[in-house]
Each structure stands twice: as C-alpha cells, then as structure tokens.
Amino acid sequence: MLSLETCVRKMTSAPAACFGLVDRGLVRAGYAADLVLFDPLTVADRASFDDPKQYPVGISHVVVNGQLVLDDGQPTDALAGRALTPRVVSQSAGLSR
User: Fold this and answer.
1) Taking the domains of the chain in order of start, what are their residue ranges?
2) Model pTM?
3) What is the pLDDT of residue 92?
4) Cα separation of 70 and 82, whole Å?
5) How much of the chain, in percent, has pLDDT values that exceed 90?
C-alpha cells in the first residue's frame, strides 16, 4: 500500500513534472491554484460501467485556476479550466521558453 502523501504526489507534482507543466502540481506562490479538499476517510468513486456519470463522495471543495468550481459538494457555474500545454524549462535560468 502507498501512503496518502505518496498517492497525492503521484496524482499532482509527479505528472505535472513529467508533462512539463511548470506552474502546476504544487502549492507554491506563482503557481496555478488547483486544489481539492477531501476527506481521506470517506472519499470514494461511485461511478460504474452501468452508471459512469456519478460524482465521487468525500470531496467538498475544488478550486481550479483560483476559482471555486465545487462548493460544499455542489458544482458552481465557474468554467475555470483550460487546455494545458507543456513548456520547456531552461536548466540554467529556471525560466520557461
């Protein structure tokens, strides 16, 4: 079994780094505010092959690009997502090109 911290890293900073998303995957000044507030004791997927369009349980709030898109378990009208493209990072300067 993996620890909760390892699971979160494998779903956030690890894929962001792998895909070259230099401002995603970590909670850090200047990064996009993509956050999920969940209860690790109750979070669960309810979708099935017969009924795939089900919201999970145990997730109370979701913030995408700094905008609240799930508030107390209810979707908001915010459409904060956008297509992401990788950026190459200069090793010496740490700046995107």
Assistant:
1) 1-28, 33-79
2) 0.77
3) 43
4) 16
5) 73
